[in-house]
């Protein structure tokens, strides 16, 4: 079924691309830039925020840039075909915005040495492939602290997508934040094996609430979980976008992605001929990650959250500061040290206090 | 760990989750019993979700939204019917085209509504009954879509088995040549059956966008139309087995989330695959036990009167 679906989507994407390719060639100096999204731009979450960044590029450069995007691209071989077609269509700067596009991006980049590629959330680069990412885990540390203060049950429900380092480091950071306030905080983790499936995300939220969680955190892309929390009268954190209208009484805050400044900067560099393969990993300080208003919480919790946010921005606080212990009690980060960016980007173990197993281990 | 309140809540979730699939697959079952395989269910469902949400949001009336969704699903099914029935085009290709068209159209229709929300369709509250332990909420605390799915089930199983119209539909699906020879307007009957399928798919879409997750997001059906299609095949084209299949699928997909929440350490990838595995295994067993209950004989074969 999935196969037929992806075939159908592939055909649709192919048709869209064929249309784009058939457009008359524009002025020679006009830069063609393209974005590849894993979800629909209408998800009001992750892909939506990337597309807001693309729109910011259009706004900033006007006639100098022509942008295209392909949404709903399956991670895997399908992605390679889509990226290749974008390169063939004359795009000179291509942003591939999901972890699963890493290998396809590198493969296509080899065949198109004159095209520049940018892969989000991955760790493999090449002369014409740059990587960029956001320190979502910084925001998740703050969420963990708020959850520990706000939960009466002492149990938080966490809806996760896929067991990749970005998601696992988010869970760890969340729990380190929670434990800094309440050492015996419990988390129930449910993997939905999808970035975007609103009904399933809602089901997961309801299941977690039925099991006694009174705070819902999510690492999936739709506002369904927030809405379910609102209906059931528990609190929740938004993901990627400010989801306050979906949970006016439920949302405590949300981690909001803001890719616009990065995209505008990179397109500018491309136009100036100064593009190079870089590795950018910005966070709260640079504004790529920012926190939605702290709502539905008492003043003291709000103050704590704001202080933590300021401390992370100033560098005074690092979510993965030692001592950090693995589940089995092994010391992974010594007292007085912090985990290196490289280690965070490849994190595949849970911290002590999480009563569950990392899938596949 | 398990108490009556929680079991009750789980059962209620299962019934709600199964209803979308039941509605959509009942419609497709009727279309297929009349001999037309419409792979456009996913497309008709998502268009129903988009149009239903857009209308419901703009008018403030969930009823109007639901009606609009039913009409939109029906309208898209007519595109399919024109291609596959009246122009005798390949049904698989026409169905896929309908799904692709539907996904695109729905994205376009829904675009202005991204980031908005509605209040969900209300759930029934019967004093005394809804509060019953275990089955109270599952049976007496659901929204209108759930009850509509059961009414549809009754209508379809009674209609197909006990009415003259049902007999004609089945005759057309088994042997269109014989039905034609008897003077039945084969293509008109098939078109009506396909329209019924479209209406049901639209209604299933409205269940998602007006009640289950009352907002619009493109691709929010996430493949449920394909699951509905598969359920029809595995039910051996019998409405009651469809009920069993949809509820089994709903049950396993909700239970696997609970199993994860309890942290039993079973790989979640396996659990995610479980609804599909369980449904396939159960329904294969069912159809193996009832010998000779295959597909309608003319399923997928276009009918051209003078050929």
TrEMBL record, chain A:
Ranges of residues in domain ABC transporter substrate-binding protein PnrA-like: 31-297
Keywords noted in UniProt: Signal
Xref: Pfam families: Bmp
First and last residue of the signal peptide: 1-27
Residues forming coiled coils: none
Name of the protein in its database record: BMP family ABC transporter substrate-binding protein
Native source organism of the sequence: Ancylobacter oerskovii
Lineage: Bacteria, Pseudomonadati, Pseudomonadota, Alphaproteobacteria, Hyphomicrobiales
From TrEMBL, chain B:
Pfam entry (one): BPD_transp_2
Regions that span the bilayer: 6-24, 36-56, 62-89, 96-114, 144-161, 192-213, 225-249, 270-289
Domain of life: Bacteria
Chief place where the protein resides: membrane
InterPro entries noted in UniProt: ABC_transp_permease
Lipid bilayer topology: Multi-pass membrane protein
Subcellular location(s) per record: Cell membrane
Keyword Cell membrane in annotation: yes
Keywords (A to Z) from UniProt: Cell membrane, Membrane, Transmembrane, Transmembrane helix
This protein's name: ABC transporter permease
Biological source species: Ancylobacter oerskovii
């Amino acid at each position: 079924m999935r196969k037929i679906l992806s075939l159908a989507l592939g055909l649709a994407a192919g048709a869209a691309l064929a249309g784009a390719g058939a457009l008359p060639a524009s002025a020679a100096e006009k830069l063609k830039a393209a974005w590849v999204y894993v979800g629909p731009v209408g998800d009001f979450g992750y892909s939506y925020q990337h597309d807001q960044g693309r729109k910011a590029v259009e706004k900033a450069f006007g006639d100098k840039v022509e942008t295209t995007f392909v949404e709903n691209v399956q991670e895997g071989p399908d992605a390679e075909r889509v990226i290749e077609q974008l390169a063939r269509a004359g795009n000179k700067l291509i942003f591939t915005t999901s972890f699963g596009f890493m290998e396809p991006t590198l493969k296509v980049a080899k065949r198109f040495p004159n095209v520049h590629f940018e892969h989000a959330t991955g760790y493999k680069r090449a002369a014409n492939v740059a990587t960029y990412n956001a320190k979502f885990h910084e925001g998740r540390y703050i969420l963990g602290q708020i959850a520990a203060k706000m939960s009466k049950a002492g149990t938080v429900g966490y809806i996760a997508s896929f067991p990749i380092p970005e998601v696992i480091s988010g869970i760890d950071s969340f729990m380190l934040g929670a434990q800094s306030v309440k050492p015996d905080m419990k988390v129930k983790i449910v993997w939905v094996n999808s970035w975007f499936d609103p009904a399933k995300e809602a089901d997961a939220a309801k299941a977690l609430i039925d099991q006694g969680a009174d705070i819902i955190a999510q690492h999936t892309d739709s506002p369904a979980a927030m809405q379910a929390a609102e209906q059931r009268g528990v609190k929740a954190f938004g993901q990627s976008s400010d989801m306050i209208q979906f949970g006016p009484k439920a949302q405590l805050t949300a981690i909001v992605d803001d890719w616009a400044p990065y995209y505008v900067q990179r397109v500018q560099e491309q136009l100036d001929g100064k593009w190079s393969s870089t590795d950018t990993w910005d966070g709260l300080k640079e504004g790529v990650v920012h926190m939605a208003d702290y709502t539905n919480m008492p003043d003291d919790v709000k103050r704590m959250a704001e202080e933590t946010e300021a401390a992370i921005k100033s560098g005074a606080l690092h979510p993965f500061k030692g001592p950090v212990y693995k589940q089995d009690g092994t010391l992974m980060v010594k007292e007085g040290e912090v985990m290196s960016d490289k280690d965070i980007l490849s994190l595949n173990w849970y911290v002590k206090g999480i009563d569950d197993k990392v899938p596949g281990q | 760990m398990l108490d009556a309140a929680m079991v009750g809540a789980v059962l209620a979730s299962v019934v709600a989750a199964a209803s979308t699939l039941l509605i959509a697959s009942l419609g497709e079952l009727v279309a297929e019993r009349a001999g037309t395989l419409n792979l456009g269910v996913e497309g008709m469902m998502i268009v129903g979700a988009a149009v239903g949400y857009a209308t419901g949001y703009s008018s403030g009336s969930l009823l109007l939204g639901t009606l609009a969704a039913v009409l939109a699903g029906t309208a898209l099914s007519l595109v399919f019917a024109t291609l596959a029935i009246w122009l005798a085009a390949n049904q698989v290709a026409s169905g896929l085209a309908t799904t692709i068209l539907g996904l695109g159209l729905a994205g376009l229709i829904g675009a202005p509504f991204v980031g908005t929300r509605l209040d969900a369709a209300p759930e029934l509250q019967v004093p005394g009954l809804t509060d019953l332990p275990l089955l109270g909420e599952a049976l007496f605390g659901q929204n209108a879509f759930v009850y509509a799915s059961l009414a549809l089930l009754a209508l379809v199983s009674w209609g197909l088995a006990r009415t003259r119209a049902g007999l004609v539909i089945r005759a057309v699906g088994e042997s269109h040549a014989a039905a034609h020879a008897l003077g039945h307007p084969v293509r008109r009957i098939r078109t009506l059956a396909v329209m019924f399928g479209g209406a049901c798919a639209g209604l299933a879409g409205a269940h998602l966008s007006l009640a289950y997750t009352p907002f619009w997001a493109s691709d929010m059906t996430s493949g449920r139309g394909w699951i509905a299609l598969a359920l029809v095949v595995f039910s051996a084209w019998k409405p009651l087995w469809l009920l069993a299949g949809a509820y089994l699928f709903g049950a396993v997909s909700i239970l696997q989330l609970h199993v994860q929440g309890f942290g039993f350490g079973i790989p979640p990838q396996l659990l995610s695959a479980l609804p599909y595995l369980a449904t396939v295994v159960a329904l294969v067993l069912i159809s193996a036990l009832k010998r000779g209950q295959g597909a309608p004989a003319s399923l997928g074969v276009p009918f051209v009167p003078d050929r």
